[in-house]
Structure formats: structure tokens, C-alpha cells
Predict the structure.
Amino acid sequence: MKDGKTVFRNIFKDKADGIEAMLNKLSPELGRIGIDFPFGEFYAKDDLLDLKTRELVTIATLVTQGSTLPQLKIHIEGALNVGCTPIEIEQAILQLIIYVGIPKVINALKVFCEVLAEN
């Protein structure tokens, strides 16, 4: 299995250091757990699900929560970094209208459009 930090950096590229610094500023323990656990235990198992699929699942989960828009933004960026197309991400978000409602999808699409405008 790959190291969590390696996978984390592969997904978030040039933003990885800033994300890690933000987590460490909140709590060094959060910085360690927030990277090692999800990215070392789950994302690293790319022989089971590839990173594109994992990022789309993560995006869908964050949209359903509604209050995690900053995290949604970094995972949309991560999804683009690992090969998801804007159409795939948009369609994954739109699919959620059925299950979580239009307001959450509108908020998610606003974040999605911000990411596209910045990139």
C-alpha cells in the first residue's frame, strides 16, 4: 500500500502543502490523522477503486452534507488533478438533485464554477 502523504500530494498537487499547513495549524494531530487515515487507508487502495472514482464518491458525499463547501472545493480540484473531466464532475453533482435536493446542488455547482474559473 502507498503512503498516505504520497497519495495526498498526488491528488492535491501544488495545494497539498497549504492544506496540510492549515490542518496542522488547527491541530498537529488533525494534520496527521486527516492525511494518514483517509489517504493511507482508503485512497491508497487504487487497485480496488481508482482515484477518479474515489474523488467522485467524495464529492457526492460532501454535497450531501451541504455545510462542507471548503472541503468540496479542494476535492473538486483534486478530482480534476486525477483525471476527472469537468463534465464528469458536473454530472455527478447534478445526479444528486434526485437524492439531496436542488439547494445543495445549487451550492455545489457554485463551488464547481468557482474552481473552473480559478483553473
The longest helix spans residues 102-118. The two ends are 31 Å apart (CA to CA).
